[in-house]
Amino acid sequence: MTGVRFEVETLIPTTHGQLRVRGYTSVDAGVEHLALIADPLGATPTVRVHSECLTGEALGSLKCECGPQLDSALRTIARDGGVVIYLRGHEGRGIGLVNKLRAYRLQQGGLDTVDANTALGLPVDARDYADATAILDELGLSSIRLLTNNPDKVAQLTAQGIDVAECIPLVISAGEASDAYLATKRDRLGHLIPAG
């Protein structure tokens, strides 16, 4: 069996206002995910499918833009209504926290994020968005405005039956420490990030 199992819904007051938070468990992986919802959703709500990033969100790492992206997405949905789907198990584009740290160490030696992953024998991006699609289906959302820079995310959601009516870039620079990382995402992975 594939998909997600809805577990619980509750209200959480946040710095962005009160959010309706729904918890899910991935049937395949057993990983827990969240849907953070700011009503009203409307017919084609703004949605951010956000990958877990402990280093960027909890530790404040400047090597990526994940923490500021999450904050910006929550601010956007709080203002306009929408959903942030928070996918756990996506750390390091799906390679895991310890392997991400190994890749960071290789980056200190001069490799970019793509070459560091492949030097470790790992995929460049191992993320799968089937659980996000299942959450969107469970919420009854078949057409969305997607906050993302990642064309693979758009392609996967579209292939899984979600109408991405609009792709809205979410470009944030975390500063000098992330410049090379963002350039690699733009130049080697095709992310929608303007040249800096």
Explain this structure to me?
- The structure is a single chain.
- By secondary structure, this protein is of the alpha/beta class.
- The chain has two domains: 4-90 and 127-189, Rossmann fold (3-Layer(aba) Sandwich), CATH 3.40.50; 94-126, no CATH class.
- It has eight helices and seven strands.
- It has helices at residues 54-57, 66-80, 91-94, 97-108, 113-119, 130-138, 151-159, 179-189, and strands at residues 4-14, 17-26, 32-38, 46-51, 82-87, 143-147, 163-168.
- The chain has a seven-stranded mixed sheet, sandwiched between helices.
- Helix 7 links the parallel strand 6 (143-147) and strand 7 (163-168).
- Helix 4 (97-108) crosses helix 5 (113-119).
- The chain is globular and about 50 Å long.
Secondary structure layout plus pairing:
Layout: E1 4-14, E2 17-26, E3 32-38, E4 46-51, H1 54-57, H2 66-80, E5 82-87, H3 91-94, H4 97-108, H5 113-119, H6 130-138, E6 143-147, H7 151-159, E7 163-168, H8 179-189
Parallel strand pairs: 4-5, 4-6, 6-7
Antiparallel strand pairs: 1-2, 2-3, 3-5
Helix pairs in contact: 4-5
